[in-house]
Specification:
The protein is an alpha+beta fold. It has one domain (2-262). Helices cover 34% and strands 15% of the residues. The protein contains 9 helices and 11 strands. The protein has helices at residues 2-20, 39-47, 55-58, 74-79, 88-114, 139-146, 188-192, 197-201, 236-245; strands at residues 30-35, 64-71, 128-129, 134-135, 149-151, 157-159, 165-172, 207-209, 232-234, 249-250, 253-254. A 3-stranded antiparallel beta sheet has the order 1-2-7, with helices on both faces. A hairpin with a 2-residue loop joins strand 10 and strand 11 (253-254). It is globular.
Amino acid sequence: MKEIVFDLIRRFPEKYSVKYHPATKWGEPLIKIADADDPLFESLKTIISPTHALPGELVVGARSVITWYVPFDPSIAKSNIPGEESSLEWDYAYVETNNMLNDLSKEVHDLITDLGYAASDIPATYNYDAIALKSDWSHRSAAFIAGLGTFGINNMLITEKGCCGRYGSVITTMPFEADVRPEREYCLFKYNGSCGACIERCPINALTIDSSKAVKVIGSQLELGGAAEYGVFYDRHLCNEQIFKKVIHFENGDGDTCGKCMVGLPCSQQAPTL
């Protein structure tokens, strides 16, 4: 049954492209599984918000969390390097990928329920508190717990195929063997202090660094976020202001994105420490 589910996820972006002809091109998804009882899910109530759900709070009897990362075609990231405003290609990728991921989650849900198990169907985005700007279910954090990657100091998750893409997840009562998390940090700054390009890439200084603290925990064990421990601080409200003050409106949603701290980096398309 695992291969049936995985095959659906791997093939879905291509299937979606053939059916809807979006402007966005995607690479093959990466897929990892988390144990629904992994204690790191409980830690999200402290790290993100007390309202962040546990898998079992969303699906009674949850056993597994299936997570995936769908990378953008490299040309999309390249288009977003110049200027302060996000590129049209990047904005379209955000909107079209959210739509595609919503359809993918629905198909995974339907497949699993057809097989006799329960499953969630959580939207790709907009499942967050608009004031606190914190989510009640973080696909990205679930992907970390499942072993898809490690967090960079820009709070983006870096996978083996980089950080320029989108995440999704489905909670299910279907039992799967959990994957292991990476053994090293994929972020060069966290790994050996040799980078920090994402800080310079932010056009509004939503990422700042206190150099007196910057290397105090270099080489520590993998962290769920933890940028502040490296002397890097993230102003989510300043970031949100940048995202929404230059919104490009589309027929099927808003291009409320920026992505400047994700592009033109050693980790944009790969994990540089592998």
